[in-house]
Amino acid sequence: MTRWVQIVHAIPGRTRLRCPELRRDHVACETVADALAARPGVHEVKVRPYTSSVLVLHDPSVQAADLAETARAALSYERVLAIGEAPPRPAEIPELSRIAQLAATAFREIDRDLLAATEGSLDFGTLATLGFFGAGAVEIAVEQSIEMPPWFNLAWWGFRTFVTTEQDEIEADLPA
User: Fold this and answer.
1) How far is Cα 139 from Cα 151, in angstroms, rounded to an integer?
2) What is the span of the domain harbouring residue 26?
3) pTM of the model
4) Does any domain span residue 39?
């Protein structure tokens, strides 16, 4: 995997760099801090492992690209990323992605089996919806009361209802 240092923001006298590996490597934090502090014109270096960032306060004449290059060289990393440049994607798929793919495959199989067993009358999405309705009805029957949903649920349901019911008008108003 490519290791990199990114220039997050730079204004005269202040530069923030980011490097994800700093979160896990306290020796690297000290190494980069010492290398940057040794540069002429650098007044202060603050390394924040939790946010994987390095704040450098310096003379306005010091260039952010030079600071990033110093950090890259001190850490023996491969790249310096400019402001806004997307980090390189890892070549390997993380383990959790495989688990998500297996879960999606399992649910697709359940959906196919359910559609086959009900001759196309019921799919997994409909069964889940009916299950949630049923669980809600049981809760109301047991509790003998209905709680008010949180505001964000009400806002989302209102928005979703509006968009769903006004879909034809919304699409008609969109430029072609």
Assistant:
1) 20
2) 4-81
3) 0.53
4) yes
